[in-house]
Amino acid sequence: MVGLKMLLLYIFIIITIFIMKINGKRNYDIVLENVTCSVNPEYFEPPTCFINKNTTKQLAHFELKSKQEMSSLQFSFNVIFLRKKDEPIVLLDSTQNDLCKFLEGSQVAFNILKIARDVLLTFGSLPKNCPIPKGFHFLFKDVYIDAERFPAYAPEGNFEITINLTSGNNFVFFGKSHGYSIHKSKGVRWG
After folding, report:
1. CA-to-CA distance for 125 and 81, rounded, in angstroms?
2. Radius of gyration over every alpha carbon of the chain, rounded to an integer in angstroms
3. Across the chain, where does the E strand assignment appear?
4. Which of 12, 31, 126, 130 has its CA 20 to 30 A from that of 108?
5. Contact 56/184 with Cβ under 8 angstroms?
6. Which CATH number does the domain 29-183 belong to among 2.20.28, 2.70.220, 1.10.10, 2.60.40?
């Protein structure tokens, strides 16, 4: 009888762990360390990009104002997990995406692009379609990345996110942020 109870307990524990893995339950938080951005002055006013470290969570702030109407834009979006001894893990290397289709929600082929779009819509002003009007004010305030939204295959550790926006061969915007994951209960930094 004791053996049956132990077997049932083991099965319960294994099922619980399996369900947690499927649901992407994370035992860590994502911390943004820094963010930088640059723009082509023909397309945007000087940008404001920083991390607000005066809060319990480190929150990103981005602010851009368009100088002209924009419609033919492409972007690349990359998420790379950096490791000390091994090669980096490329979680997403998505190039030549049509920004207008992304804004409309019709080009979200990768789960992580859908997450990025949802985060941008949650924390700021993003046009819903093209053309992006002259004078549009992009404001993304108190942006944070919820580890629960990351795909289950995303590893823990240091990461880098880059966004590059172009119009034909012209540079329009480049943004980069670095961060890391930190264990929720112990405050231990992964990676």
Report:
1. 28
2. 20
3. 28-39, 48-52, 59-65, 74-82, 89-98, 137-143, 158-167, 170-183
4. 31
5. no
6. 2.70.220
**Each residue's pLDDT tens digit, 132-187:** 999 999 888 887 777 776 666 667 778 888 889 999 899 999 999 888 877 666 55
> Domain boundaries in the chain?
29-183
Residue 116's Cα: distance from chain center in Å? 5
What stretches of 23-110 show up as alpha helix (H) in DSSP?
99-104
Contact 92, 112 (CB under 8 A): yes
Helices and strands per DSSP (H, E), number in the chain: 3, 8
Q: Which residues of 35-60 are buried (b: 16+ CB within 10 A; e: fewer)?
A: bebebeeebbeebebebeeeeeebbb
Nearest one of 32, 62, 67 to 139, comparing CA atoms: 62
Angle CA 174–47–115, to nearest 5: 55
Is residue 184 within 8 A of residue 29, CB to CB? The reply is yes
Q: Could you tell me which of 59, 32, 54, 33 has the C-alpha nearest to residue 142?
A: 59
